[in-house]
Amino acid sequence: MEPLIIDGKRISKEIKDELKEKVADYKKKGIEITLAVIQIGDDPASTVYVRNKKKACEYIGINSKSFELPGDTSEKELLELLERLNNDSSINGILVQLPVPDYIDPLKVINTISPSKDVDGFSPYSVGCLNLGEKGFLSCTPAGIVELLKRSDIEIDGKHCVIMGRSNIVGKPMASLMLNNNATVTITHSHTRNLKEICKTADILIVALGQKEFVTSEYVKEGAVVIDVGIHRDENNKLSGDVLYDDVAPHCSAITPVPGGVGPMTIAMLMYNCVEAVEI
């Protein structure tokens, strides 16, 4: 069976092009959209992510304001900057690139960002809205996965979705979003018994474990849809996911590659949230 290879690059560009038009319409009405991006220190991976976010802003016509803080910035200084940005009416969205240094409490950071500017969708308010099915900012990676499925004509309604991983950034919000789209949801994690058997019941298997090439064909039902959220870089700079792609792909009806699957969608949905911020 030749699976459908879900093209995250193409779909993310589709979304960004739609947003570009929307932003141009706002500009005609005199409305500018500005994202504040804060990075502490010079972690190379974070620098790449921040650069990609700025490029996406530029592409769709959003202003990005950069705050590149030294690695020894105190928690107090960071929280004071966030409060200033909360009170600045020219800023629509605030993003702090994670991870922050160990001495800074990430929860304090997330809780300080005004819910109306929380374009990452991490705040308790955003999470509460998601769980209640109310309008609010959606966590970017799970929202991107739903868009990948819908724009690839993969039905979610009534399907059994198994999620591997229960993080606050992917696993938990993913479960809520799939429930909101009428899937039947099972979350698995490191304490789950009979993991292979449970995964083999999935019509849609979403893998967000952070373990390189953990999922083999033994975990996958024939004809399932497999979404790989993992990203790992080896010593030769080659990227791979949480799924052993060549082993799993022949058994799927559809699968996301790494790279070029879920990754580009996270930034596209961040841009979507920035544009939504005008109305939230």
Oligomer status: single chain
Listing every helix as H and every strand as E from the N terminus to the C terminus, the arrangement reads: EHEHEHEHHHEHEHEEEEHEH
Sheet with the most strands? Answer: 6 strands, parallel
Q: How far is the first residue's CA from the last residue's CA?
A: 44 Å
**CATH architecture heading of the largest domain:** 3-Layer(aba) Sandwich
Globally, the shape reads globular
Low-confidence stretches: none
Q: Which structural class fits the helix and strand makeup?
A: alpha/beta
CATH class of the largest domain: Alpha Beta
Mind telling me the C-alpha Rg? Answer: 19 Å
Report the strand count.
Answer: 11
Question: What number of domains?
Answer: 2
Tally of separate helices: 10
